[in-house]
């Protein structure tokens, strides 16, 4: 594969993504200007929607944020219902045709934004040049290269491998977190049975991986930073003190690991702007 073909492929993907985003922006603005009152009337008991309704007075961008909030709620309503931010009856009675349009808008926009970020990072890390160089080496020598391009800026090589290591670290974190929520979640909840902040969210365990991860996040923040919850009466001081040290160390290690990986990733993305 020649370099021109990788550039052409990159430009084709970018063009498709931007075309999709422009179409979704147009759809969002159309719904915001024509269906705002209709949406508010059908979700009048949803705290989340009422809280963000003021964005309709902030111009086109504010209206798009409002539509994004509504579509996100309709796409994943059960967790918001458990958190007390949405009304189950309002969600159930929402017009099906408009609901499906908003859900499709939300999901396609998510994928387009994620694809745009991934392609931008790949381009900044010279990943496409790496692929082209690997294909060229394979054609010339019968093997594919395993290193970034030789003669390129050495900082690109460093960024490339830092990015790969960071992504591997995030995957390891997700694996460890998944092990905890599927093997240790019941034990964690049993040690915090007197903490209102956790018991009122315990039904999140039935909402798939996303709900379990949110519940684990709440448990982690309570164990690591308990003072505010204890003072507000949402946590029991004895439950916090008697929490098993081994589980406390595990949760603290994972929490610290996540923040380090995210800070490194944000630093890497910021460095790509130079």
From TrEMBL:
Key words, A-Z: Membrane, Transmembrane, Transmembrane helix
Source superkingdom: Bacteria
Transmembrane regions: 6-26, 160-182, 250-272
Protein name: Uncharacterized protein
Native species: Pseudomonas taetrolens
Species lineage: Bacteria, Pseudomonadati, Pseudomonadota, Gammaproteobacteria, Pseudomonadales
């Amino acid at each position: 594969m020649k370099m021109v073909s990788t550039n052409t492929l990159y430009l084709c993907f970018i063009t498709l993504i931007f075309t999709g985003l422009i179409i979704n922006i147009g759809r969002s603005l159309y719904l915001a200007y024509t269906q705002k009152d209709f949406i508010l009337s059908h979700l009048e008991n949803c705290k989340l929607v009422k809280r963000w309704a003021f964005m309709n007075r902030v111009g086109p961008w504010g209206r798009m944020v409002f539509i994004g909030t509504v579509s996100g709620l309709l796409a994943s309503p059960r967790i918001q219902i458990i958190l007390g931010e949405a009304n189950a009856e309002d969600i159930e009675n929402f017009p099906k045709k408009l609901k499906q349009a908003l859900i499709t808008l939300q999901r396609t926009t998510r994928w387009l934004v994620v694809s745009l970020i991934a392609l931008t990072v790949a381009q900044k890390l010279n990943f496409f040049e790496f692929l082209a160089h690997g294909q060229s080496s394979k054609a010339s020598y019968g093997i594919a290269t395993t290193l970034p391009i030789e003669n390129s800026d050495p900082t690109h090589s460093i960024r490339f491998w830092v990015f790969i290591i960071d992504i591997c670290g995030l995957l390891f974190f997700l694996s460890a977190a998944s092990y905890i929520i599927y093997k240790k979640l019941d034990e964690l909840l049993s040690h915090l049975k007197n903490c209102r902040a956790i018991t009122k969210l315990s039904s999140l365990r039935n909402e798939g991986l996303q709900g379990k991860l949110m519940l684990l996040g709440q448990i982690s923040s309570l164990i690591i930073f308990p003072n505010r919850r204890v003072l507000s009466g949402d946590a029991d001081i004895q439950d916090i003190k008697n929490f098993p040290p081994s589980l406390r160390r595990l949760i603290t290690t994972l929490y610290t690991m996540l923040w380090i990986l995210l800070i490194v990733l944000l630093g890497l993305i910021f460095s790509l702007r130079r």
